[in-house]
Amino acid sequence: MPEVPEVEALREFLDEHLVGKEIVRVLPLTVNALKTYDPPLTALEGATVTAVARHGKYLDIVAGDAAPGGLHLAVHLARAGWLRWKDSFPAEPPRPGKGPLALRTVLAGGDGFDLTEAGTTKRLAVHLVRDPADVPGIARLGPDPLADAFDRAALAALLAGEGRRIKGALRDQRLIAGIGNAYSDEILHAARMSPFKPVKNLSEDEITTLYEAMRATLGEAVERSRGVAAGRLKAEKKSGLRVHGRTGEPCPVCGDTIREVSFSDSSLQYCPTCQTGGRPLADRRMSRLLK
């Protein structure tokens, strides 16, 4: 799933390629992708893109002059969605169907982008609204971890009274916007912290360590992704990950074998030596498979 660094890189890419250009048409190609109907997508036809913003994992393409701040095409790529830039399109429009193509946006110059989603579980979401706060997922977002105002005190205030384990807290978009499964693994590895550590047990020094690991991990990932073409961002993300998705590989810090804990629809990766005092975490699902 695209997280803060990849979505920020897409925002920068689209800011360069979209702003100032006129939208000719927007074609929805799957029933499930479009979540709003008023205003209709045809309201974007003839409108000029004025800005591209980001709200957590949401892209926000702003166009036209509708009050108070234009029309907002808000896109959440979900787990298997992606944005693919096209310099040109076939003359014949695509047919709606069950393929990966979810939405096509064509500009006056003949270029534009496709939104695609792999797999059979379709969660990619597109909203056309007059105010991004009208999108429920955006309205519920916590603060952005890359914002200038997000300092160590802000993180400490968010964690105060939190009863969950740190991995679950980091992934909660209502607490902090934009961190998902991959970068929560990376942040916790950088902080040398168990994903199962209860937030309430964090010391003041550990909160400082967590904050510094969060800012450094996300900041470095944004810098790696900056300037990378949209089509190569997924590969860039994977190449920069130290533990996530690397079960069985050696930890790049200590050389221990990276372990995994599996859940019903996801998994986390960690290094026992760096994060759990050398003790492997219980993984009941894998234990059952090995019996």
What can be said about this structure in brief?
By secondary structure, this protein is α+β, with helices and mostly antiparallel strands.
Describe this protein's structure.
The protein is α+β, with helices and mostly antiparallel strands and 291 residues long. The chain has nine helices and ten strands. The strands form three sheets. It has a four-stranded antiparallel sheet, with no helix packed on it. The chain has a four-stranded antiparallel sheet with strand order 2-3-4-8, with helices on one face. Helix 1 packs parallel to helix 6 (204-225) and helix 5 (181-190) crosses helix 6. The longest helix has 22 residues, at 204-225. 36% of the residues are buried. Residues 286-291 have low confidence and may be disordered.
Query: Mean pLDDT score, rounded?
Result: 91
Structural class: alpha+beta
Rg calc: 20 Å
- Quickly count the helices: 9
The description of the largest β-sheet is: 4 strands, antiparallel
DSSP strand tally:
10
Query: What is the helix fraction of residues, given as a range?
Result: 25-40%
The portion of residues forming beta strands comes to 15-25%
